[in-house]
Design a protein that fits this description.
The protein is mainly beta. The chain has one helix and 29 strands. It is globular and about 50 Å long. 57% of the residues are buried.
Length: 492
């Protein structure tokens, strides 16, 4: 959460890290399977609860009321009509957000109740100036978990704590945040994962790096777990420590059916000149970690810029990962090669992360960014992403649309669906904030997907941006005839 968002200079490097020169990438065919469609689309965000600001917070007057970005989403495995989402609320480019909001739905995303984490920032009775990088997950027992940052930005570097909260009533109310890692410079990019099998167990991972310091560095990816529903967290352990001229970032935890934990993260090694995607395994619930396996590598590259304005294009480079019921692991990644050319790729492993293969989504050739991947309970893989295929050079807008693709055969074939847009990126968050933040969210349902994402003009009504929810599912099936309020909807 650096005050000047210095980490943005490393993220584009990882946005291209998965050209996977060490693997034989293939472009699968477009499937003739039943198309998926957007069954509902609605705003999850609303008017800011902090219209009067947060007195006492550092540079609160610089934060834009109604500017919301960086959403995450989770579906309750005990009741798939219960969905929880989170995002950054009231953003300032240099100084991050006033707070993180959490929204809960109890009708499959048709309506939302918005709330806050008590004591997360000064806005809600805490001492932190700002919040960032919110994440949500559910455990197998229906406990909802929140992870994020709480920072003091009056110092340089800012002092950032990694924090966690939990809810035992489907996201209606949340506990005061527990400190997972104390406030220190360089804490970044936390993500929380509820255990799909162990009651009251959840896992947090995060990176630590300071790009404003000259190498040699001592950057790390760290891990902590709770076994009492989020009340207490274990002392952090190191998942990975790259060399003194390398940076690890954007770690995410996935849980395999046999209980093995898999940590995904990107690495930029400035000594070797390579960018890689890494996967580390733990066989003892995170107490110890095996050396990371390289899923692929390519030469480091730089940023891409809007040729009309000179502003940086969105290219955060966060890999997104998911595990299928059969144990197949998938990760989606950006693969743009120029301001007017790009792709979305998917790597997969069917042996617990030991070996990997890769494909590129068919039908994506424009600049593409911020994919999110998930698997539903039937094993269908879904991916959402933005791309610029419908942008018209020379007009006043930088036009993006959100797309969805699904595969029923482990990524051999794909079918594509338009989700939302066109929307104008130039009216969203500042370019340095990648317009809609550094990630969007996708979660699997019984059959279909729950997506959460940002849109700007003309869709946004409560500020420069709004957060939108889409229920995406197969068309022309028996599910279409079932109301979301019907008990049978749980299987759709």
């Amino acid at each position: 959460m650096s005050r000047s968002k210095r980490r943005r200079h490393i993220l584009p490097i990882l946005g291209l890290l998965l050209l996977l020169a060490s693997l034989a990438a293939t472009v699968p065919a477009v499937a003739a399977a039943t198309p998926y469609k957007v069954k509902s689309l609605s705003a999850a965000s609303g008017p800011s609860p902090f219209a009067a600001g947060c007195p006492g917070a550092f540079h609160d007057d610089a934060k834009v009321t109604g500017l919301v970005i960086e959403p995450a989403i989770a579906v309750n495995p005990t009741d798939r009509r219960n969905i929880v989402a989170t995002w950054k609320q009231d953003l300032s480019g240099p100084f991050n957000a006033r707070d993180d909001l959490v929204a809960s739905s109890f009708d499959g995303g048709k309506t939302w109740q918005r709330t806050t984490i008590p004591g997360l920032t000064r806005c809600t009775g805490g001492t932190a100036d700002t919040a960032s990088d919110p994440w949500v997950s559910f455990g197998a027992d229906g406990t909802a978990y929140f992870g994020g940052q709480a920072g003091l930005v009056s110092s340089d570097p800012p002092l950032v704590a990694i924090v966690a909260s939990h809810s035992g009533n489907d996201g209606r109310n949340w506990a005061a945040p527990a400190i997972v890692s104390p406030p220190i410079g360089g804490n970044e990019q936390p993500a929380i994962t509820g255990s799909p099998t162990l009651k009251e167990h959840a896992y947090m991972t995060w990176a630590n790096f300071l790009l404003q310091l000259s190498p040699p560095w001592t950057n790390t990816v760290s891990f902590s777990r709770t076994s009492d529903g989020g009340a207490n967290w274990s002392p952090p352990v190191v998942v990975d420590a790259p060399g003194p001229f390398a940076i690890d970032q954007a770690p995410r935890i996935s849980v395999l059916p046999n209980g093995t934990l898999l940590a995904f993260f990107g690495r930029a090694d400035f000594l070797t000149g390579l960018a890689t995607l890494e996967a580390a395994r733990s066989l003892d619930e995170g107490k110890t970690w095996l050396p990371a396996v390289e899923a692929g590598s390519k030469p480091l590259t730089g940023d891409f810029f809007d040729p009309e304005t000179g502003e940086i294009l969105p290219q955060p480079g966060y890999p997104s990962s998911a595990v299928a019921p059969d144990g197949t692991v998938y990760a989606a990644f950006e693969n743009s090669t120029a301001p007017d050319a790009g792709a979305i790729g998917v790597v997969s492993s069917r042996d617990g992360g030991l070996t990997w293969s890769t494909t590129m989504l068919p039908g994506v050739s424009a600049f593409a960014f911020e994919p999110a991947i998930a698997v539903d309970e039937h094993g269908t893989v879904g991916v959402i992403w933005y791309d610029l295929r419908n942008d018209h050079p020379g007009d006043a807008a930088l036009t993006a649309d959100l797309w969805f693709a699904h595969s029923d055969d482990h990524g051999a074939t794909w079918s594509q669906t338009h989700v939302a847009g066109p929307t104008d990126l130039r009216t969203a968050a500042p370019a340095a904030q990648t317009r809609f933040g550094e990630y969007q969210g996708l979660a699997g349902l019984g059959k279909g997907f729950a997506a959460i994402f940002g849109l700007a003009a003309p869709q946004a009504k409560n500020g420069p941006t709004d957060i939108f929810f889409a229920h995406i599912g197969p068309g022309g099936t028996a599910c279409d005839a079932i109301s979301q309020d019907d008990d049978r909807q749980g299987g759709c």
